[in-house]
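Tokens as discussed.
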């Protein structure tokens, strides 16, 4: 279980995360929603230790995460992998090498740059790409892929870390609805089939309701809602987004039903990601 106790992150006088306490059981898929600046991304960066907390603590299965350093911190970032809105691929490298870079914490930077990966790791990378319907792109340069394809490669790279927790920071914010649905379907399949905990920052209510077991709403750095999708009423949503932000949160829906004909260079989605 991931346990967050009275977590704070201050930037000067700004409380980006303000006294947040949460318990996230293993295998849960959690959507974190709220307006821009609500503290969603900062919360994920604190969990991954890309940012240092001002106060409070983070523990996972009894291990104190918020004080880890050196090799122990690298090991935590492997167990708690993260994907980003911007994909963060190396454009000049081919897809399979980008995926193999997920083994960085196991090899070190030099070995990774020299592509010193075992045959077992290469097979593992092809399997990760195949389950995301991307194996056919293995030898393409990353910058030849569409946005939706690049995000799926980023997910495959994260899986190479063999994580227990997968953090997704606005993974569909820059994607069209069809590609967004493909990415969300992939994250949900990984969560359900492998039992990996997924914590995903999302902009729209409908996407969170369609894909997540639990929804956490944040406003001004604080948790103002924590419950099931069914319990997220209009009044609760209004508290999270405010009256002027609620319409925007409801304006875009990303679900499997939004899949149409392929576009943006993406392949037709499989019935399931297995």
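Sequence:
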């Amino acid at each position: 279980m991931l346990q967050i106790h009275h977590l704070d992150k201050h930037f000067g006088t700004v409380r980006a995360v303000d006294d947040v306490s949460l318990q996230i059981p293993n295998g849960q898929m959690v959507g974190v929603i709220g307006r821009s600046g609500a503290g969603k991304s900062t919360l994920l960066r604190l969990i991954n230790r890309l940012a240092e907390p001002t106060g409070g603590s983070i523990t996972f299965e009894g291990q104190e995460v918020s004080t880890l350093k050196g090799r122990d911190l690298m090991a935590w970032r492997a167990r708690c992998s993260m994907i980003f809105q911007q994909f963060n691929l190396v454009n000049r490298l081919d897809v399979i090498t980008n995926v193999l870079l997920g083994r960085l914490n196991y090899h070190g930077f030099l070995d990774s740059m020299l592509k010193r990966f075992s045959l077992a790791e290469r097979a593992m990378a092809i399997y990760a790409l195949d389950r995301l319907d991307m194996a056919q792109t293995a030898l393409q340069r990353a910058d030849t892929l569409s946005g939706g394809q690049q995000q799926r490669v980023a997910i495959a790279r994260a899986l190479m870390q063999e994580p227990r927790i997968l953090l997704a920071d606005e993974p569909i914010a820059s994607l069209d609805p069809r590609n967004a649905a493909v990415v969300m379907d992939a994250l949900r399949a990984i969560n359900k089939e492998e039992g990996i905990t997924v914590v995903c920052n999302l902009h729209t209510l409908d996407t969170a309701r369609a894909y997540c077991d639990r929804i956490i709403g944040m406003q001004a750095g604080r948790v103002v809602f924590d419950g099931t999708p069914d319990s997220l009423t209009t009044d609760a949503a209004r508290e999270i987004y405010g009256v002027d932000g609620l319409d925007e949160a409801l304006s875009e829906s990303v679900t499997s039903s939004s899949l149409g004909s392929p576009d943006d260079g993406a392949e037709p989605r499989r019935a399931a990601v297995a």
